[in-house]
Amino acid sequence: MTTTTGRRLPAALLALVMAGAVGPFLDNYLLYVLSLIGVYAIFALGYNLLMGYAGQFDFGQGAFLGIGAYASAVLQVKAGLPFAIALPLSGCIAVLFGLAIGVIVLRLSGFYLALVTLGFHQTVVLGIALWGPLTGGFQGMTVPRPTMPGIKDNLLMFYIVAVVAIVLMQAALNILRSRIGTAFVAIRESDIAAQAMGINLTQHRVLAYGMSAFYGGIAGGLLAMLLSYITPEGFGLVETLKVLTMITVGGMGSVAGSVIGAAVMTLSTEMFRLPKVSVEITNGVLLVLFIMLMPTGIYGLYAKLRGRFARSGVIPATSVLPK
Amino acid sequence: MLSSVLVNGVVVGCIYALVAVGFTMIYNATETVNFAVGESLMVGAYLLLTFDKFLGWSYPLALLTTLAMAGLIGFVVFDRLVSRPLMTASMLSRVIALMGLASVMKGTVRLIWGADAIHMSSPFSTKPIVVGPVEISQQEIAIVVVTISVIALLYLFFQHTRIGMAMRATSQNRRAASLMGISVTGVFAAAWIIGTMLSALGGVFLGPLLLVDPDMGSIAFKSFTAVVLGGFGSLPGAVVGGILLGVVENLAGGYIRSDLQIAVTFILLIAVLAIKPTGLLGKPLAKRV
User: Range of B125's domain?
Assistant: First the structure.
């Protein structure tokens, strides 16, 4: 196990150095798109931890994105905190919500779980919209951008996203290779069997919710920074659908799959400058097609071709999808 | 005040109940959680709007065509295109596919009819009739009467027709039903057709009460809650849960704040799941290992 971690750490460092070296040569638009991919990679990764690894149906992930975005914005605008403190705090606030919902749904599974998370999401969006004095209500609010003398805004944001994304990805890889990750997969395969093996179900389910909320919250804080203007409507069901499409297309139960999904979906949306209608239709069609024809996603196909799942020690979620 | 709140609650509750019954029929037959039920409702409203308002057909003809089209969508899109190929897939796969389908339906409607909300008129008068302390409009009477008749018809259908009995048998034990010579795929198709027609009817009723827009399908959350409230998988439960939810929601809306409705529904959902997860009329669930 340690060998895999050891082998991946240089890869993460290499990615950081590459991002640092390439950054200054990119134009603003490309920097924006790459940052967007980074943000959604974090978001998709958090969702994949919960859905793909721990096997918990959750259809309200967009709530954490919204909580993170608004927490970061409110902390900066109303409390006057600097971005460097507001961002981690927004992740922690999302974790509080994640733990709360994790405790609420402890005894639930399947449809009930999906339903409660769906309701939680709608309630959060409503709460943001109605809490006018703090959040600007339906009108939305402006989010300040971090600045640093001598470096242009878009490049700075790209660097921030790159560092955070790579650190969080490395953290996820390490956690998933630890006891916790193995426990998540065991719970996904059969919660009863996992319990019989001595895995603390309560602890691990709440932990999965907390972790995925943290990733969602951080992604939200970063997204608010990139967009610089946020409205409650921007964090509706569409965001959950987007991230669901990302992990389905990329590969459920795989860190690489989350990144691939985020990249493919963000690039296609940005490249073709799709309006909302076409995003809805393409996301929907992709979801249906991938579930029917390629349930393990792009990474699953790649891994099958390379025969890698046998060696990596983690069973991809979608290998058990077709029952 | 109280009586009008109660009447409104029952009327809206009837619509929740119609959709909840359709949802439960589909679940009982196919064990598929239809996450696109709200979009069936939305498409139903748009179809009626097209035939009645844009094409100027007479209301009964427009309504019949809408229901027929909804049945067709239920059969071709839901049953054949999405549900049938995933019959042996896991529940998660089917739910994801249905969420994808819901998104496609929303996008398609936005593409054809535009994103703006459209006003839908009702063939019945909205002028209130005063009966003692209760004020009720013709339109509201129509909704309640039609809902009661549809539920009565469904009861007769399940008790006395061959296909109805086949559906009940399939929901009890799919394998045994198939061994008794019941065409299980036929039962699936029937459930999707009737279920989609019921939600489209819900959309037809809901249209004049609200505005018709591509996102009106989010109302399905209310029907899901109604299903849980009444007891998952129970058809009488779906009816009771729907009407009860409509009343509770309107009481909360009338006496607390009307824009908090969705939060009230959510709290009710969590309360039911915490206190009595099997709902009012549901059977206890046991998990087979």
Answer: 2-217
Q: Which of B92, B225, B264 should we substitute to test contact with A (largest number of A Cβ atoms within 10 Å)?
A: B92
Residue B130 lies in a domain: yes
**Residue A5 CB neighbour total at 10 angstroms:** 13
User: Considering only CB atoms, which chain B residues are within 8 Å of A285?
Assistant: 100, 104
Annotate A44-63 with b (16+ C-beta within 10 A) or e (fewer). Answer: bbbbbbbbbbbbbbbbbbbb
- Residue B105 within any structural domain of the chain: yes
Domains: count for chain B: 1
The answer to whether B1 and B255 are in contact (CB under 8 A) is no
Chain B residue numbers with beta carbons less than 8 Å from the beta carbon of A127 are: 263
In 10 A of CB B288, how many CB atoms? 4
In chain B, what residues touch A322 (CB-CB under 8 Å)? 88-90, 93
B-chain residues near A53 (CB < 8 A):
none
SS3 at position A229: strand
Cα(B180)–Cα(B260) distance, integer angstroms: 50
Interface of B with A in 200-219 (CB under 8 A): 218
Rounded distance between C-alpha atoms, residue B49 and residue B46, angstroms = 5
- Nearest chain A residue to B98 by CA distance is A288
Distances (CA, A) of A16 to A41, A169, B136: 15, 12, 68
Residue B250 lies in a domain: no
Separation between Cα atoms, residue A220 and residue A66, nearest integer Å: 6
Q: How many CB contacts within 8 angstroms connect chain A with chain B?
A: 127
Burial, B123: exposed, middle or buried (Cβ in 10 Å; 0-12, 13-18, 19+)? middle
Mapped onto helix, strand or coil, the DSSP state of residue A152 is coil
- Which of B200, B208, B242 shows the shortest CA–CA distance to B10? B242
Cα–Cα dist B72/A175, whole Å? 49
Residue for token pair 């896991």: B90
In a domain, B213, yes or no: yes
- Enumerate the domain spans of chain A: 2-236
The DSSP secondary-structure symbol of B131 reads: E
pLDDT in tens, chain A (323 residues): 444 444 567 777 888 888 877 877 888 888 999 999 999 999 999 999 998 888 888 888 999 999 999 999 999 998 889 999 999 999 999 999 999 988 888 878 778 888 889 889 989 999 999 887 888 888 889 888 888 887 888 899 999 999 999 999 999 998 988 888 889 988 888 888 888 888 888 889 899 999 999 999 999 999 999 998 999 988 988 899 999 999 999 998 889 999 999 999 998 888 777 677 788 888 899 999 999 988 888 988 888 887 755 555 455 554 444 33
pTM: 0.88
Phi, psi of B215, rounded to the nearest 5 degrees: -95, 5
Region of residue A251 (left: phi > 0; alpha: psi -120 to 50; beta: else): left
Residue reference for tokens 């005894």: A107
Q: What's the rounded Cα separation, in Å, for the pair A12 and A48? A: 20
Mutate to test the interface with B, among A97, A105, A115 (most CBs of B within 10 A): A115
Residue that has been written with the tokens 């600045």 in this structure: A147
